[in-house]
Amino acid sequence: MVFGGLSSSELTGPRGNPTVTLSARQERRQMSFKANRGADERTPLINGESSTDNGHVVRQPRSNVYAFFLDFHHTPGRDSDSLPVRSLAYTWHITKVTLLSNYVNFLLVMVPIGIVAGAMNWNPTTVFVLNFFAIIPLAAVLSFATEEISLKLGETMGGLLNATFGNAVELIVSIVALKDGQIEVVQSSMLGSILSNLLLVMGMCFFFGGLRHRGSNGSGTEQEFSAAVAQTTCSLMTLSSASLVIPAALYAVMNQNGSEDTAKSILVLSRGTAIILLLLYVLYLVFQLRTHSNLFDAERQAAEDEESEEPHMGSIAAGAVLVVVTLLVAVCAEYLVGSIDDIVESANISKAFIGLILIPIVGNAAEHVTAVVVALRNKMDLAMGVAIGSSIQIALGVTPFLVIVGWIIDRPMSLHFETFETVAFAVSVLVVTYTVQDGKSNYLEGAMLLGLYIIIAVAFYATPADALDQVHSLIMG
Description:
Layout (H helix, E strand, L loop, with lengths): L21 H16 L6 H4 L1 E3 L5 E3 L4 H6 L13 H17 L10 H10 L4 H30 L1 H11 L2 H12 L3 H30 L2 E2 L2 E2 L2 E2 L2 H30 L5 H30 L23 H24 L1 H8 L3 H26 L3 H29 L10 H18 L3 E2 L1 H20 L2 H11 L2
Antiparallel strand pairs: 1-2, 3-4, 5-6
Helix pairs in contact: 5-6, 5-12, 6-7, 6-12, 6-14, 8-9, 8-12, 8-15, 9-14, 9-15, 9-16, 9-17, 10-11, 10-15, 10-16, 11-15, 14-15, 16-17
């Protein structure tokens, strides 16, 4: 979601939000690239670049070692006359660019270890931890490959592609859990993704950004973002909250009257509501990308001096990376979900805590850091876009889509969440709405959001493992 909007050429940005902008993507990519370069991107002695008389940067020859391992634009051998050499060089170039695309990719070493641990039936806790950390860099690579493809498709198609694959990790993990009958984990992970973005990420952005830009003592200042767009997205979040409250209210009424068709009625209501929410999400995309895109360009916040970003790999190569990483995520998710029951029994923690607190970390870690960094740079529209954009897609897109998937594969996935979860979600949306309605933020508001998130986390952690599980069994009939 773009707050304070950017130009149309900067659309199609990262995860789960078609208009989190190219500038936001550049922020994340530059953090990783500059860390590897060890100097400013125009430092001639490091980057091998010099300026021409016309002010254009001309790339000068670098050492072959640097070019082979660290150059994002060139790999020796790609211009060879030999097809095998050229093919191997291009394959390494794609691998190199992918590996160096994000700072969390050092965790990719966990992927083969986690798969081996799951295949050889290691201790369930070990399997869970290894695959937990394996999926984090896979999510970052998935986002990178999606961005590379979207750069070639234009703003509209690129935006839709990012909207489709933005929350792919959460979607894959949830489908695997749904197929395994772990409906409570699916519901908790969806709710957890929303709450982690609304409370944890936004709270950290407000808190650290507010401390950085607090002004002088006695003359404090606040960071600003587009209040109009914030209110629009909060209205959508309130709608999604209502979509959970209504099934809960219906369940309470029917259960009080002793109706025997309670579970069936809840499923019918949930599936009908899911279809409506998906239609509203499509309208939201059209509203944001096409008919009213001007509303998201109200306050330009893109850095005009940033270089335009060019793709580092072709569409076919990016598509291949996308397919391979998606398969790896599916395998790791299978082992991750398969170890949950044993962990619940051995550690005596509820499935709700695992789904609400732990699993959302998997797919969102890299984007969370990005949001905080841009908030520190006083680009609050971009930070709000990363924080709220993914929440909107989870609430209006992914969750109702999973209800439809459950309908197809005969799993009773519904929008009737456990009452405790529903109340936590409704209260969180209410607090966030009051916090952002003035279009300003400070570190105190950030501390409030973080405090609420910690309270919710502690509440679910303190809940006995069998308490919510028994309630969930009654809900499912």
